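Reopening this ticket.

The earlier resolution said the output was attached, but the attachment link was broken on my side. Pasting everything inline this time so it's all in one place.
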Amino acid sequence: MLSPLEKACLRWVSRGKTLAEIALIEGKSVPEIQLYLQRALVALEAKSINEAIEKTNLSQSD
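Inline output:
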């Protein structure tokens, strides 16, 4: 199960945002965004961000 912020970070990545852009949007630091993405990988048992995005069925239109 992903936290709302983990899912939001994956959604932003799927839309082509950089870590710095996501940090600015979410009001967090870049290291915090990296941590949320890493936690999402672990939670989803994914080997990459792309695999995590696929597993959550996120697309650029979401």
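Reporter confirms the inline version is readable. Helices lie at 4-14, 19-26, 30-44, 49-55. Residues 30-44 form the longest helix (15 residues).
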